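Good morning,

Attaching, inline, the backbone tokens for the sequence recovery test we're adding to the shared suite. The designed sequence is right after.
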């Protein structure tokens, strides 16, 4: 039963990661500040949910750290004052999400 619960948590987290990744990709191409803020808020919510699920299950501490870094990058992308910085931070967020996912798949 415990193993099944952990598996379900991981599936949930991987779906949160996928959704956050899609939102971050949209941040990269958006030029509307209001839309960027909305997309960032949604991505952060997905990342926060993933972290909460991992913490609640006592799972994948390194992934939790990477997702936390991704969260900060998303906020920095939303706060960026120019397109180059926005894209840089968004790409950093994507890298941290991928590294977190990798820590889950191959701990």
């Amino acid at each position: 039963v415990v193993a099944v619960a952990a598996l379900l948590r991981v599936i949930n987290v991987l779906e949160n990661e996928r959704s956050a990744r899609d939102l971050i990709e949209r941040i990269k191409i958006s030029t509307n500040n209001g839309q960027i803020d909305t997309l960032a808020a949604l991505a952060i919510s997905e990342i926060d949910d993933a972290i909460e699920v991992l913490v609640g299950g006592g799972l994948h501490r390194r992934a939790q750290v990477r997702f936390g870094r991704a969260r900060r990058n998303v906020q920095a992308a939303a706060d960026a004052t120019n397109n180059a910085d926005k894209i840089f931070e968004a790409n950093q967020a994507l890298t941290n999400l991928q590294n977190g996912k990798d820590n889950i798949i191959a701990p």
